[in-house]
Amino acid sequence: MKDLMGQAIWDYYHNKSADDLLTETSISEIDELPVEYFFRGFEEMNLIEQNALELSKGKTLDIGSGAGSHSLYLQNEKKLEVFALDISPKSIEVCQLRGVKNILCADILKFPGETFDTILLLMNGTGIFESLDKIDIYLEKLFSLLNDNGQILIDSTDILYMYDRDEDGGVSVPADHYYGEVDYFVHYKLDTEKPIKWLYLDFETFKRAAENNGFVIEKILQEEDSYLARLVKK
């Protein structure tokens, strides 16, 4: 893993500038992602992020923390005990330099058995599930990390709109895999990260998986094709 996204975050923090990241998926063209986006404040976040942060409570685990903007808001503005977790060493280093008190550089599946009141997964939080056949593995792990009265706040997008429709309104989706399973590529400074598996979930598919793994799930907010969900233990 080259950690190109982490390198871009590190460059921006130290130099106050960085080349744009270029991202693409197996079903979309290359798109520019300004690195400053990872350093935005609460007022610059979208409604899904803002709602998730406002609903967060208690001891919180911020999975995929990036540069730490969500963690910093919860720590400094809401005075919560927050743990920023990311698989990217350079991103976690920046979290610490920005003032996040509790940092964890780890793969969530290998994270030990501490438990939390809120588990936060934003910016298409279901992406880390990789594929439909791995959802159970991740949900079982999240279940084990959640206090009995805790909550998981997670967002995703139904990307059915990205596929072609025929004259009758039918949608042409892949026959060999779920349409929300994509390969995600990151490019930075003429270098390319090895593609990762990334999962976008429609709410009904997510609901079935969550209920099969001992959760009650509700949709908190819908914004166009994206939504925020809350999971609690049954």
What's the structural blueprint in terms of helices and strands?
Blueprint lengths: L3 H12 L5 E5 L2 E6 L13 H9 L4 E4 L5 H8 L5 E5 L2 H10 L3 E4 L10 E6 L13 H11 E12 L23 E8 L2 E2 L3 E4 L3 H10 L2 E9 L2 E8 L1
Parallel strand pairs: 3-4, 3-6, 4-5, 6-7
Antiparallel strand pairs: 1-2, 1-8, 7-12, 8-9, 8-10, 11-12
Helix pairs in contact: 1-4
Element-level helix/strand string:
HEEHEHEHEEHEEEEHEE
The top-level CATH class is: Alpha Beta
CATH topology: the name is Rossmann fold
Which stretches of 5+ consecutive residues score pLDDT under 50?
Answer: none
Give Rg in angstroms: 18 Å
CATH architecture classification name: 3-Layer(aba) Sandwich
Which term fits the overall shape? globular
Spatial order of the strands forming the largest sheet? 5-4-3-6-7-12-11
Overall strand count: 12
Q: Measure the end-to-end span.
A: 37 Å
Q: Tell me the domain tally.
A: 1
Biggest sheet layout: 7 strands, mixed
Mean pLDDT: 96
Share of residues in helices: 25-40%
